[in-house]
Amino acid sequence: MKSNFMNINLNIVKNNVLGFISKKNIFQVSILFILVNLITLSSYEINTFNELLNLSFYGVPKISELPIEFLKWSAIQFFILYIILKLFYTEVYEKLHMTLLRVSDKKTFINSLLVSMFCICILYYLIGFLVLISFNLKLLFTTINSIYLFKIFLLCILFSYTFSLIGILMFFFIKNENLVFTLIFFFTIISTSIEGNINKYLLISQGMLIKHISYNFNYVFSITLILVFLVITFYGIKSLFMGRDIY
Fold first, then answer.
1. Containing structural domain, residue 27
2. Which residues is 3 bridged to in the sheet?
3. How many structural domains comprise the chain?
4. In this structure, is the dihedral angle defined by the CA atoms of residues 233, 64, 75 and 34, taken in order, positive or negative?
5. What is the pLDDT of residues 66-76, one digit of tens each?
């Protein structure tokens, strides 16, 4: 089944999303967010669910401060990066010939794959947020700002999707998953270590909620900047895929 919007093959999207919704993946993502919840609750005195959400995705003001927060934030981001890179490698380097026999053109394939990844990011955080809610029902029924919850949910999805697409963009040139991981982790450390107002314009800063406070920028600014990075990266991947013989 093919949608006319952006030349998307819905069967590819469905199969990739269903591939993510396995007992193993749901269990692993749930365990990750259970650990995030335990670390957050043990590190701070939390009175509202909004505080819990904020501190769950807090990040660090500098790499030398709050190392446990940096590890917690990195675990969330690098696990979804691993899932997305694994999907990209499987679909592009193992299944591409077979898939192209069904969809007939590369443009439909790459559009469908990129949409699949966005859907997976949504499900990833949906599972994560449901875990946080399930383990904190008392906080949920005290004070919750649904608009704030939605802002963080949207910010997390867009940031992780863009973060993962940058990994894919690098994969076109490096073609080594471990090296891509290492380089992105290195750049994350460097970006987190940078001080000054330039932080406001760094991609990493948009995904660390502490940076919003430290450098005084709001969610609208952050989401807008992420979307700029996203559009550039999205079309960069499409151009590279369409223009090079990568298989």
1. 2-243
2. 8
3. 1
4. negative
5. 788 889 999 99
